[in-house]
Amino acid sequence: MDADERWIARHEALTRLGVKAQTLYAYVSRGRIAARPDPADPRRSLYAAADVARLCGDGAEGETEVRAPVVGAAARGEADIQSSVGLIAEGRLFYRGLDAVQLAETATVEAAARLLWDVRDGDPFVGLKPRIDPIVGGSTQRRVLAVLGRRAIEDRSLRSHDPAGLKQEAASLLNEVVDSVSGPGPRLYLHQRLARGFKAFERDSPLIRRALVLGADCGLDEAVLATRAAAFGGAPLAGAVLAGITTLSGTPLGELGEVVAYVGEARRDPSGAARRWLALKGGVPGFEETAAFGRVDPRARALLEAAGLPADLQALLAEGEAAAGRPAGFHLALALIARRLDLGPTGAGDLLLLGRLVGLLAHAVDQATDGSPIRARLRYVGPEPGAH
């Protein structure tokens, strides 16, 4: 077998295996199928033909894949959602089969978006221009919500678009949000425009880029569920994402607010602040173990390694890890780089919001183009009819 024949494209691997894309990505993440970027198009991956053959039962190991019966939540009538966007496996995060930490080393927000949205041909960001009536003023969160609300009224249902048109609309929507946050100026990369809006130095814009790429997706949470449910119902793309963003504004941003408060206090007295939080609440904000990744969140580690934190923030990080007995999580990494870049009290939340916007757009597009039906059962537990 020559060099070209050793690697096959995704559609061929899926055809041979007879599985959905997310199963293929799971095989890659678990080391059962080797993958590499396509030299002709680095946004795409090629898969080892020998590994695929082995899983099909054609190789020496004769390994075959048996699909498990539907059990658990799906069997109880609860929501069961299929996604091709992201996967967390063995402590690593994958975007459509590619390691998100490795991707964030060099990928622009646009490149990450094209991958997450499964854009195979063309570039939906080419030729996008600013609106003549941008939404300005107020906090970043207010501007994001205002843009999404306006577009939810203006735009057509997801069901009226073909896949290519839907991805073009996603790029247009993201471009409009960034314009609202960044204000007028040169049409640079999205992370450079956001750095301008945040009044950060241009030399620090790669750190903003890395944070946005790493924060795009983190598996299934309430925001993803809300986005996909709205998309399944046929909402406009902006409306589906608005459902997810408003949901995100609850618990995740609330938890992040506590982390930001801790960072502000601990800058003045790192060891004392850690002890006080342990005594009051039994934990140090930002150092909690996450259910998805377990003890170590690879996104946090990748972001902090690139942050170039000053001595006071390094001390805060070291004291917190020593007191909690755990490494920093992604929320703390966002809070530290927001402090390092002087993005203001809402900077960490702004980075989380804008990064997740890219991923929620991916979930809405994925649900509309390749998603399974979302079915759930409502069980009434209220008073009997006629009861007083």
UniProtKB/TrEMBL annotation:
GO terms for biological process: tricarboxylic acid cycle. Pathway: Carbohydrate metabolism; tricarboxylic acid cycle; isocitrate from oxaloacetate: step 1/2. Keywords: Acyltransferase, Transferase. Its EC number is 2.3.3.16. It is an enzyme of class 2 (transferase). GO terms for molecular function: citrate synthase activity. SUPFAM superfamilies: Citrate synthase. InterPro entries: Citrate_synth-like_lrg_a-sub (IPR016142), Citrate_synth-like_sm_a-sub (IPR016143), Citrate_synthase (IPR002020), Citrate_synthase_sf (IPR036969). This is citrate synthase (unknown stereospecificity).
